[in-house]
Each structure stands twice: as structure tokens, then as C-alpha cells.
Design brief:
Elements (H helix, E strand, L loop, with lengths): L4 E3 L2 E4 L4 E6 L10 E6 L6 E6 L6 E3 L7 E6 L4 E6 L8 E8 L11 E4 L3 E6 L1
Parallel strand pairs: 2-11
Antiparallel strand pairs: 1-3, 3-8, 4-5, 4-9, 5-6, 7-8, 9-10, 9-11
Length: 124
């Protein structure tokens, strides 16, 4: 059963912006931290951003800090990732995930529920 569904990916030129969205059609994750991860060809899945259960705390990977913003709307059961000033090295499949716990964490192993991913391609 699909737990999370990402959307909003696409092709954009360097310096451009995209907004990714994540929906949870089957259940609520309002008590869980949510995260965005990405995986480029030939590389391991890496942490991008996380937001705690209430939305009051966020955490970002160093390479996206100042460019990306994670947000959530627990009433709508959605999580977004606003990506600005995109770079070619941001090209990857982006995944939304729900943590086992309520606090922000960068570790892939603590996220139990995953979407199927959405492709983001940034051209130079």
C-alpha cells in the first residue's frame, strides 16, 4: 500500500525554482517528523531536510541550507519542499518520508514510510 506520494518534480534551469509536494492519502503522519531525501545516479540516498511533528523545528543538510525550505500542513496532511536557486548537482530523485519518531533526524534508517519519488533535473 502506498503511504506517501510525491509530486512537483520536473526539468528546470540552474538558478530556477521548484516546489515539491508530498501527500499521505492513507493515513495521518501528524505525530511524526517528516523528511525529504534524494538519490542521484550512482550515489547513496542522502538527507535533504526534515521538519518535526508540529512544524516548529526544521533541520537542513549543509548543501541546501539557505536555498530550500521544508514546511508542513498537518490539517491537510501534506509536506512541501520549496527549492530555490537550484544547481545541477541538485539533480536527483527526491523522496518524501515519515519518521518513526516526532523529532527531526537525518538518518535514513529512522524513516519507516516512503514515497516512490519524483525526478528533479537541473540543467546548466
Amino acid at each position: 500500500q502506498v503511504q506517501l506520494v510525491e509530486s512537483g518534480g520536473g526539468l528546470v534551469q540552474a538558478g530556477g525554482s521548484l516546489r515539491l509536494s508530498c501527500a499521505a492519502p492513507g493515513r495521518t503522519f501528524s505525530s511524526k517528523a517528516m523528511g525529504w531525501f534524494r538519490q542521484a545516479p550512482g550515489k547513496e540516498r542522502e538527507f535533504v531536510a526534515a521538519i518535526n511533528w508540529s512544524g516548529g523545528s526544521t533541520y537542513y543538510a549543509d548543501f541546501v541550507k539557505g536555498r530550500f525550505t521544508i514546511s508542513r500542513d498537518n490539517a491537510k496532511n501534506t509536506v512541501d519542499l520549496q527549492m530555490n536557486n537550484l544547481k545541477p548537482e541538485d539533480t536527483a530523485v527526491y523522496y518524501c518520508a515519515a519518521s518513526r519518531y516526532g523529532n527531526c533526524d537525518s538518518r535514513v534508517s529512522l524513516y519507516d514510510y516512503w514515497g516512490q519519488g519524483t525526478q528533479v533535473t537541473v540543467s546548466s
